[in-house]
Design a protein that fits this description.
The protein is an alpha+beta fold. Helices cover 57% and strands 7% of the residues. A hairpin with a 2-residue loop joins strand 6 and strand 7. The protein starts with a helix and ends with a helix.
């Protein structure tokens, strides 16, 4: 399953599949279809203006919201949607459901293997966010399963993944040498089934080290396909998704749709606790921005408990304007390198903390920075010095 999220890194500075012309009308329809507030009349009015489906369909795919779009248009009996485009949307939905079933089966195999080896794990993002946001693990597009494990358990967890038929995308010698990849990625051969293991050390985009002990202490069980699965507390999962969206500069509507839907579907979410959890990891502004952008774009309301705090943060308003500029283009109009750096600093709160966050992200090498043939050596300093050069080559050209 090749979706817009996978294509993101590959598509930088390429011509978008939805064309280089105006997408104003198609963007409005996309937002209307993904808003938790159902505006049937508004959707029908936009459809009545003559939507270019050759623009709209790939735009929905790049934003990874084709499932949400299909579900919303199905509620309207696909009125005024051409038959061929209706069939394409339905076909993608069927493929998404089949993919979700296959990934759920993989999840259960992994949980069984980890349990036998006494490895604790927590499912994050992907299907659990789809379930929390839309009540259906198959409604939201995702391309992998993300599982949290303790760093002390990563070697055992990797060995278990190998035992049940997955192949690692990194050398085991790197783990033994203490090198930390961006994620511990595994793929089942001959399939598109990808599993990513994360630890408190590999989740670099948390402003402070992932408080994994607290996550395990606050965990809960959620039933997926009739089986209880260990997941984060609702507040921890929400904050994690705010940080994840900020990591990717909120370049996908899918991430905002998740935020808006969770806000709308879960009145029991304890916003004071969410605020405290975000403050504990230095992500208050990331939380505020997620709430404000989802209000601006998808019409949700910033929770009353946080409304005054969000309104009082002047930088949130300017950051919203930045996001609004590049969001519709689904990663095909990425911010320039200097703007990326400034965004990172502001997201952490600015000042010394913000600069420190930027420097840590800029100098913490991942597997992309490891020198070929030295994956099992501790060349941290050399890898760290080369990382900024790689980032400049990747993001600095053409701006």
């Amino acid at each position: 399953m090749y979706t817009g999220v996978i294509a993101w890194e590959l598509s930088l500075r390429e011509t978008p599949p939805f064309g280089a012309g105006s997408i104003e009308k198609e963007w409005r329809l996309l937002c209307a279809c993904t808003s938790p507030t159902v505006d049937s009349q508004g959707i029908q009015e936009i459809l009545g203006q003559g939507v270019d489906w050759n623009v709209f369909f790939p735009l929905a795919i790049e934003h990874s919201v084709s499932g949400l779009v299909a579900g919303r248009l199905q509620q309207l009996n696909y009125e005024t949607v051409p038959q061929d485009w209706r069939e394409k949307l339905q076909s993608r939905m069927r493929a998404q459901h089949l993919f979700t079933l296959s990934m759920t089966a993989e999840l259960f195999r992994i949980l069984d293997a980890f349990s036998k080896s006494h490895i604790e794990t927590l499912l994050v993002k992907g299907p659990i966010v789809s379930f929390l946001a839309y009540g259906d693990a198959a409604m939201r597009s995702y391309v992998d399963l993300d599982l949290l494990v303790r760093h002390d358990d990563i070697l055992s967890a990797a060995q278990q993944m190998l035992a049940i038929g997955f192949e690692p995308a990194f050398p085991f010698a790197a783990i033994r040498a203490g090198k930390i990849p961006g994620e511990y990625l595994f793929r089942r051969p001959g399939t598109q089934r990808i599993i990513e293991l994360h630890t408190e050390r590999s989740f670099r985009y948390y402003p402070v080290r992932l408080p994994l002990a607290d996550f395990f202490a606050r965990q809960r069980l959620v039933a997926l396909d009739g089986r209880d699965v260990p997941v984060l507390s609702l507040e921890d999962e929400f904050v994690l998704n705010c940080i994840h969206g900020a990591k990717h500069f909120w370049e996908r509507l899918m991430w905002l749709a998740d935020i808006a839907a969770i806000v709308s579907r879960h009145p029991e979410l304890d916003w004071r606790r969410a605020k405290q959890n975000a403050a504990d990891v230095g992500a208050l502004r990331m939380l505020y921005l997620a709430l404000q952008v989802s209000e601006n774009v998808l019409g949700t309301t910033v929770p009353a408990e946080l409304a005054a705090d969000v309104a009082a943060d002047a930088l949130v308003r300017s950051l919203c304007l930045q996001v609004a500029r590049w969001l519709p283009q689904a990663g095909f109009a990425p911010p320039a390198l200097w703007e990326r750096a400034g965004f990172r600093v502001k997201m952490r709160g600015g000042g010394i903390a913000g600069v420190g966050y930027l420097l840590r992200l800029s100098l913490s090498p991942t597997d992309e920075d490891w020198q070929k043939g030295a994956e099992d050596g501790r060349w941290w300093l050399w890898d760290a010095l080369l990382r900024p050069l790689r980032l400049i080559r990747k993001y600095g050209q053409g701006h």
